[in-house]
Amino acid sequence: MSHILLALFPLIALIATGYLFKKHHFLSEGFWNGAEKLNYYLLFPALLFHTLATANIDSHSLKTVIAAMFMVLFIITCALYILRFVKRIPPARFGVHVQSIVRFNTYIGLALVAALYQKEGMAILAILLAVCVPVVNIISVLALTPSEHMSVKPVMVALIKNPLILSCILGGLVNALHVPVWEGLMNLLKLFSASSLPLGLLCVGAALQFKEMKKDVPVLILDTFARLLLMPALAYFVCLHLELSKLESQITVIFFALPTASAAYILTKVLKGDSQLMAAVISFQTLCAAVTLPLVIWWAG
Asked: 216: number of CA atoms within 13 Å, CB side?
């Protein structure tokens, strides 16, 4: 357990630092907007590309990992839509529940897996991200969109323009086709990658809005329990059923134990969902993950 806490401490400290910097106006508001944009369009895609392009990928075993991921997503998405039908939940609220449970904070995930499992674990997680990013974006957009406004074209255009998806596709192709990349460029991407996670975690902290947590407390607790404890438990049993290796099971369980993504707030606001509830869920889950993640990692290990 001690090595898990040692791996988590820098992550929690960076998130807390970002929150304190934002709260006490240590840096201007413009800095955080620029930092998020820089990370989203340059640094984080560089990290995903570099990780996938240089990873030692076992395609046979990764097929099973991807199958496990899809099984978990399919089960939980079906359960959510059944709940929506029974409770007649409007899209503005349903989209928040869906994003609270199916989305994940990539910065925390990559930083944690890099600290605990190094490059071998990072390769597995990067593959999961490459496949899952477009899937959860589609699920999230559909959940927030009223049935009468649904259209395939806007969703597809948004996915094609997503820099995270593009970097995953390019990195995977470079690896699969053994495309040579100039060493100087790879070293530059490595430097960008090293900058991405610390800056991303600072931005996660800066985005926290604890004042919103006083609203809809039962909903907050249920969504957080489902994401941080129910999802990893489901992933664990799916991994057992599919007989994944120990490392593959651990990475998959951690992947589904991550708090929801900070970007869920932006998507909810753009699509006219309940953005205040979404901000509360993001903040509460990030706070609770400091307690649940060490327990889940210890249990899965």
From this structure: 18
Six token digits for residue 205? 């902290």
Distance CA 279, CA 269 (A): 10
Cα–Cα distance for residue pair 40/163, rounded to 1 Å: 7
Distance of CA 244 to the CA centre of its chain: 22
For the chain, strand residue ranges (E) read none
Supply the DSSP string of 223-246, one letter for each residue: HHHIIIIIHHHHHHHHHHHHT--H
Task: From 187, 284, 168, select the one nearest 226 (Cα to Cα).
Answer: 284
Q: 126, 104, 79: which is closest to 232 by C-alpha? A: 104
* Model pLDDT for residues 222-281, shown as the tens digit of each residue: 999 999 999 999 999 999 999 899 999 999 999 999 999 887 887 788 778 888 888 889
DSSP H or E run through 118: helix 106-144
Give first-to-last CA distance, the chain, whole Å.
10
Tokens of 155: 């969703």
- pTM (predicted TM-score): 0.83
Largest separation between any pair of C-alpha atoms in the chain: 57
